[in-house]
Design brief:
2 copies of one chain form a homodimer. The first copy, chain A, has 11 helices and no strands. Chain A is mostly helical. In chain A, helix 8 crosses helix 9 (about 155-175). The N and C termini of chain A lie far apart (about 50 Å). Chain A binds a DNA duplex (30 and 30 nucleotides) through helix 1 and helix 3.
Chain lengths: ~220, ~220
DNA sequence: GATATGTTCAAACGATCGTTTGAATTTGGA
DNA sequence: TCCAAATTCAAACGATCGTTTGAACATATC
């Protein structure tokens, strides 16, 4: 492992430049679509630097995923989230998921990288998630569970969490096309705020509804 | 245009073999990820056949998209769909969207190809959709509109249609992972039927709800 | 059966990919 | 200040990509 190197001042700066450029590239083009040469060009470092500092393209991707997961799990902007009502917590989660629609920061890159992986999970990603992402997904599942009956199964909570993810990610993934013709939606902060309200409201309604044959069935129908 | 060739008996068979193999490959790996060499290997034809029959990889992709759109728009299995209630029509749409979760046929490939394109639309795809897909999307939007108030704007209907797409595609995209650990869901026809009931029910609830501040707002909040 | 046209085939081309190499340069501690 | 280690750099390697080529083969028309 020649790339498990000592972290010095100068190498740390290079590593950070590379990770930032790589996050953008992976978010824009996916893991396979992003090339070493475009990453080093945007980071303004030599091509061999990636193999020197991260061992391989896969190693760089692992480092990006670690940075991404750390950022996505941090609640630094609202440390009181544990005391929120379930509705407010859900609204906060949805708004956070929708953030890439307007913001062009690292967090939006991270969300997009995860969206790529939901379409065709790479081997790197699957190993990484199995090892480090359990608490992240558990948090969302627990949030969903607060809306379900006490006797809800794990399966129901997982499906509910995925359902919630899907409602958000479709807008994030299609943001560019929503802004263009023929839709021409004005994707400013106000719009996304209202969209978050809408999605959260629909989700609360859906999750809270007791199952009913007349309504085509509910989540309870998924119990074995 | 040397590839606008006369359609003979033998060339038609080759074209169909290529399109079928290409659909699988594009669905599995995306446009960039699928290689000519794997496609011709699965189709059991010569490598140069693709450029001969379709001009280029892009030309082949266009042909696949045409086949896909034609299949996705056909209502051959239920010609009475025009007479369905809005709830039944919505349930039918959702069930059709979820079909790739169990079925391993061409239709599931087509849905997956479109899912790839929502993540990073290729130039080929954008041109193609702008030219040929308007009626397809209009049909979904009209279905959503049947649940909205009469004075609903186009913008509201479009957002509602996208919202519906997102709820379905998240399960389709993650079907493989749902089947494996730690979820271990048994994705048989019964499960998908119930899932379609659940999603359709939630969607009906969400779309029908009148806007209400107490419920964090509804679709009407998106009107300008 | 001869001929022209449509189709298949193996081989190669140029470009881009991730990675490796070895020397040049910079850095940090004695 | 000096030397060993850390880091950067330009160049090349082998592999894979989409595409082209020109000959070989199959098919249809007379």
């Amino acid at each position: 492992m020649p790339w498990a190197i000592k972290v010095t001042r100068v190498s740390k700066a290079t590593r950070e430049k590379i990770i930032k450029a790589a996050s953008r590239a992976f978010a824009r083009d996916g893991y396979d679509g992003a090339s070493i040469r475009t990453i080093v060009a945007e980071a303004d470092v030599n091509q061999a630097a990636i193999n020197y500092h991260f061992g391989s393209k896969e190693g760089l991707y692992r480092a990006v995923l670690q940075t991404a997961l750390r950022a996505l799990m941090s609640d630094d902007d609202a440390p009181q989230s544990g005391k929120l009502s379930r509705e407010a917590a859900l609204r906060r989660f949805v708004r956070r998921q929708l953030r890439p629609m307007t913001a062009r920061d690292e967090l939006s890159d991270y969300v997009r990288i995860f969206n790529w992986e939901t379409l065709k999970p790479s081997l790197v990603f699957r190993k990484f998630m199995a090892r480090e992402a359990a608490p992240f997904f558990a948090a969302i599942t627990e949030l969903v569970r607060r809306f379900l009956p006490d006797n809800a199964t794990d399966k129901q909570a997982v499906v509910g969490a995925l359902w919630l993810f899907g409602q958000c990610s479709i807008f994030v993934r299609n943001a560019e096309q929503l802004a263009g013709p023929p839709f021409r939606l004005e994707l400013d902060e106000r719009f996304v705020d209202r969209l978050a309200d809408t999605i959260a409201g629909w989700a609360v309604d859906g999750l809270c509804q007791p199952p009913s044959k007349a309504r085509l069935g509910g989540l309870a129908a998924l119990a074995k």
